[in-house]
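Here is the promised in-class demo. Please do not try to memorize the tokens; focus on the logic of going from shape to residues.
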């Protein structure tokens, strides 16, 4: 593991723990969720192709973020980011949006997210704490990340940023994410932070 990245992530976690200890149950640790919204077209297609990954109901779980689990997130995020070659859906599949597992070792942001979620579930992490999330990036383009719900707040696993960060420390405007109880359904996010992202739409 890269020592610099490990130290950076450890410092970020320490800062998060300090802030949450001082602020108590500060709502800024967690995304403010709104009402039910339509799932992304790509996720609807993914569920059609992989019905077992989208069926059933889950009990909402918030993972206790121990040092071991924190290190597991860091290692997993780095491993998947380095193991997948970034290629657009248009180049790979000949269409604008196509969500699937990166079986050929290539993909765009959704493939990174799906693989991270799959590996964490296989390692025993609860499905309801691992939520595919859609945001707008610095170029105001759609971007997918994995939100991990922990007792220290919502943490983001991303392919554009190497560090695992609290959601509010990323430069994105969050739009919607998977429901904590039904993986095929999605919920809107009320992200009212002032960021460097420009004009946004759904």
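The designed amino acids, position by position:
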């Amino acid at each position: 593991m890269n020592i610099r990245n490990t130290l950076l992530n450890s410092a970020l976690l320490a800062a998060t723990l300090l802030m949450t200890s001082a602020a108590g149950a500060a709502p800024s640790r967690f995304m403010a969720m709104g009402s039910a919204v339509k799932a992304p077209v790509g996720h609807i297609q993914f569920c059609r192709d992989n019905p077992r990954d989208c069926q059933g109901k889950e009990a909402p779980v918030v993972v206790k973020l121990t040092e071991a689990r924190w290190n597991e997130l860091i290692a997993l995020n780095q491993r998947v980011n380095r193991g997948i070659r970034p290629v657009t859906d248009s180049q790979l599949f000949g269409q604008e949006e196509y969500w699937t597992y990166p079986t050929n070792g290539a993909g765009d942001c959704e493939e990174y997210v799906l693989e991270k979620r799959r590996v964490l579930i296989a390692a025993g992490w609860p499905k309801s704490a691992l939520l595919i999330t859609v945001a707008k990036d610095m170029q105001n383009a759609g971007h997918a990340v994995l939100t991990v719900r922990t007792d220290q707040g919502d943490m983001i696993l991303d392919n554009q940023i190497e560090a695992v960060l609290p959601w509010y420390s990323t430069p994105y405007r969050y739009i919607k994410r998977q429901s904590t109880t039904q993986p095929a359904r999605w919920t809107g996010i009320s992200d009212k932070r002032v960021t460097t992202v420009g004009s946004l739409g759904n």
